[in-house]
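User: Hi! I'm working on a homework problem where we have to compare a predicted structure to a textbook description. Could you give me the structure for the chain below?
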Amino acid sequence: MILFISDLHLSPRSPGATALFLRFLAGRARQAEALYILGDLFEVWVGDDVTDPYHASIIAALRAASDAGLKIHLMHGNRDFALGQAFATAAGASLLPDPYDLALPEWSFVLSHGDALCLDDPEYLAYRAKVRDPAWQQQMLAKPRFVRRLLGRYIRWRSARRKRSQGYVYADLSPAATDDFIRDHGYATFIHGHTHQAATHDHMVDGIHVERWVLADWHEDRGECLVWDGEVLKREAVIFEN
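Assistant: Happy to help. Predicted structure tokens:
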């Protein structure tokens, strides 16, 4: 069994979602062989050396699940683009490239955060190109930690301002670019996050039917994981149970 999640946006400002994730790691996730986190695990991350008790608790929970046998794979999102190998080692996780082709004996998937295909949002694409540039990241990570913390606050403020102006509607993936992406990856089932618009889309590409599964974002009282049981994909709610 394999689980897929994304867009948890964990921070001290989201205690409900944090508690939900910690319980998920200690329980449901350990029933699976592997967990794929497809970006934006954290609301913001500005360097593996910027540590505090809150983030240390998340790392410890990931490590405990990994030590218990869960294979954890993590992809960068648009918020936690600076997650590095030091974090992955401490958490017992492996960092994935974006996109990532997951070929299983039963089926083939292509995994992505999804934001690179939001071509109808040029302002966001300009931001993404900057923060994903290795040279820019190297310069950013060389700055003092207090400066990077200020950068994290600015990123949160900028996102909140954009959400207000857009009415909390995220741009969807470009249809033409998505079809090209599916074609380039061998018509594999496409799983991604980023848009916060959980849905299952049917694409006909070169006469081939391909499903695109959009992962849900997590909230203070609920989350969601996508489950592959070796035969089918299905959505499963992650909630507190009394």
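For your comparison, note the following. The first helix runs from residue 15 to 26. The chain has a mean pLDDT of 91. Good luck with the assignment!
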